[in-house]
């Protein structure tokens, strides 16, 4: 909903309430008018106009400039008609004009629709009409008119600031959405394409010959692709098509889920919109990976379970790449009341201090996106504990966010 929509609703209520107030003043001073029937005719027109135009002030789209001009005309005519139907003594005493404070509604319509400049113009017209009606610059009239002028201009300025803030917020949300989509694509690419290119480069170099040339080309493409996905959010004109194209890419963790689905345990893991995290992690267990966890299922929302399992897969990929094929890894799943924590520990050489930050700057996004990015999107956290020669421990935690019925 637009930030200014409540102002239009308030203006609608204001016009109705001030009409009732003007009618009450007319009825109370009926016997004091020189021409009460003439005043009554204007009040009837004002009532019909207000009733017929209620929907016109319900939104910015319906409130057109033509309507605002007509609304202001009705108010000004009522002000200028007052000396013709009321006594000179009552006017000199400061008796309200026929439309009374209903006139401010016409001015506020200009303020909400066009900002402070429109409000200043409409207020000036109303002030001029009131000065003509009073026949001069009466002190009480000037005070009231200045109040209307200042208030309408202030409201118009506030509306302009609100609109600018709304545009800024919308742009920030678009940038955030584009950034998240880019990170999601980067995670998918890291978990699939980049891993394959890296493997081709290593195997090609080991085989030699033409395979080495193919491996070198794969390495060059890997570097180019890493640079592409780490250059920042796409916020320009191409962001729309890129986002649309992203919808056709398989979500992060899909490959892991497909592998897990080949096992009988995983076939029974998903119930409705919840999945058993242990069943999704089971395919990783083997001679070099030990999986430990509770004796019962660890249910999580399907999307959260898939993302957490994919993050564990990325951590194990790092173990194989940096600690070697013979390194041993241990996966520990802890099912706590308020969170699910998965710890991945290895007996590799550890991570030198500052290496993770350097890798992110170099475009190696396994930690930045495939692990930390996934956990951030789930509202969780990822922590690394490592020392040279003492292995590495990665702690991944996902909050349950008030889940019940476990």
Structure description:
- Residues 307-401 form the Histidine kinase/HSP90-like ATPase domain.
- One of its GO terms (molecular function) is kinase activity.
- This protein has 406 residues and is α+β, with helices and mostly antiparallel strands.
- The protein has two domains: 5-168; 251-406, Heat Shock Protein 90 (2-Layer Sandwich), CATH 3.30.565.
- 62% of the residues lie in helices and 10% in strands.
- It has helices spanning 5-28, 36-52, 65-85, 88-92, 102-114, 116-134, 139-207, 210-229, 239-246, 254-260, 264-267, 277-281, 302-323, 355-361, 366-377; strands spanning 274-276, 289-292, 299-301, 329-335, 339-346, 381-386, 392-399.
- The strands form two sheets. The chain has a five-stranded mixed β-sheet with strand order 2-4-5-7-6. A two-stranded antiparallel sheet has the order 1-3.
- Strand 4 and strand 5 (339-346) form a beta hairpin.
- Helix 3 (65-85) runs parallel beside helix 6, helix 5 (102-114) packs antiparallel against helix 6 (116-134) and helix 5 (102-114) runs parallel beside helix 7.
- The two termini are 37 Å apart.
């Amino acid at each position: 909903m637009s930030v200014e929509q409540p102002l239009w609703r308030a203006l609608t209520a204001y016009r109705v309430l001030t009409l009732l107030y003007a009618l009450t003043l007319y009825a109370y001073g009926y016997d004091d008018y020189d021409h009460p029937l003439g005043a009554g005719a204007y009040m009837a027109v004002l009532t019909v106009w207000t009733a017929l135009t209620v929907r016109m002030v319900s939104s910015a789209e319906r409130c057109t400039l033509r309507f605002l001009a007509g609304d202001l005309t009705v108010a000004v005519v009522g002000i200028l008609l007052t000396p013709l139907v009321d006594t000179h003594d009552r006017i000199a005493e400061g008796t309200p004009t026929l439309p009374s404070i209903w006139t401010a509604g016409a001015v506020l319509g200009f303020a909400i629709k066009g900002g402070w400049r429109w409000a200043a113009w409409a207020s000036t017209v109303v002030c001029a009409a009131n000065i003509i009606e009073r026949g001069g610059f009466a002190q009480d009239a000037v005070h009231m008119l200045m109040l209307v002028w200042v208030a309408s201009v202030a409201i118009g300025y506030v509306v302009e600031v609100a609109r600018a803030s709304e545009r800024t917020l919308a742009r920030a949300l678009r940038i955030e959405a584009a950034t998240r989509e880019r990170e999601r694509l980067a995670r998918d690419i890291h978990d699939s394409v980049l891993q394959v290119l890296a493997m081709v480069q290593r195997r090609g170099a080991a085989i030699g010959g033409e395979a080495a040339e193919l491996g070198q080309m794969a390495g060059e493409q890997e570097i180019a692709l890493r640079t592409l996905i780490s250059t920042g959010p796409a916020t320009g004109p191409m962001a729309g098509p890129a986002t649309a194209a992203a919808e056709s890419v398989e979500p992060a963790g899909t490959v892991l889920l497909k592998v897990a689905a080949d096992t009988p345990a995983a076939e029974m893991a998903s119930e409705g919109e919840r999945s058993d995290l242990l069943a999704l992690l089971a395919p990783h267990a083997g001679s070099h990976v030990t999986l430990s966890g509770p004796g019962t299922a660890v249910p999580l929302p399907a999307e959260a379970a898939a993302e957490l399992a994919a993050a564990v897969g990325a951590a194990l990929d790092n173990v194989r790449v940096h600690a070697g094929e013979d390194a041993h890894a241990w996966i520990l799943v802890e099912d706590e009341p308020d969170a699910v924590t998965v710890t991945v520990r290895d007996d590799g050489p550890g991570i030198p201090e500052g290496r993770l930050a350097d890798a992110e700057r170099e475009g190696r996004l396994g930690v930045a996106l495939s692990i930390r990015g996934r956990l951030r999107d789930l509202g969780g956290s990822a922590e690394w504990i490592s020392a040279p020669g003492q292995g590495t421990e990665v702690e991944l935690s996902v909050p349950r966010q008030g889940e019940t019925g476990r």
